[in-house]
Amino acid sequence: MAGRAARLVLLAGAAAVASGSQGDREPVYRDCVLQCEERNCSGGALKHFRSRQPIYMSLAGWTCPDDCKYECMWVTVGLYLQEGHKVPQFHGKWPFSRFLFFQEPASAMASFLNGLASLVMLCRYRTSVPASSPMYHTCVAFAWLSGR
């Protein structure tokens, strides 16, 4: 019991010491996001943001704060490059330009193809293995859950 408590305290301490990516910690980025959200993400400004936001962006779940983070990420990247520094990561990821509503189109395409391959293999499994086989339903359920 004491060992478990010690591990829990150690884990909590490690989480407290952990910090975000370089870009997240940058005061310019944080100030930009704060000002952008105050200026654009409340009251009439939020209504204006929603009215000019493309429908595909709202359907994909992009919010006003998300848009502020995206825009401020590029402001910060510009300052880093202007000063001759390397491009920092933001939220644990490298900055990518948004295409439609995908910020990482190659990753999104790879995920889609992975899901498609899982679906094809699930269909093959269901047609070639009898439903009365042991573990059939377990395999189908696992394939369905892991493909999501």
From TrEMBL:
Keywords per UniProt: Golgi apparatus, GPI-anchor biosynthesis, Membrane, Signal, Transmembrane, Transmembrane helix
Lineage: superkingdom: Eukaryota
Localization of this protein: Endomembrane system; Golgi apparatus membrane
Keyword Transmembrane among record annotations: yes
Coiled-coil stretches noted in the UniProt entry, renumbered to this chain: none
Keyword Signal on entry: yes
Purpose of the protein: Involved in the lipid remodeling steps of GPI-anchor maturation.
Family note: Belongs to the PGAP3 family.
PANTHER family linked to this entry: PER1-RELATED, POST-GPI ATTACHMENT TO PROTEINS FACTOR 3
Protein name: Post-GPI attachment to proteins factor 3
Gene this protein is translated from: PGAP3
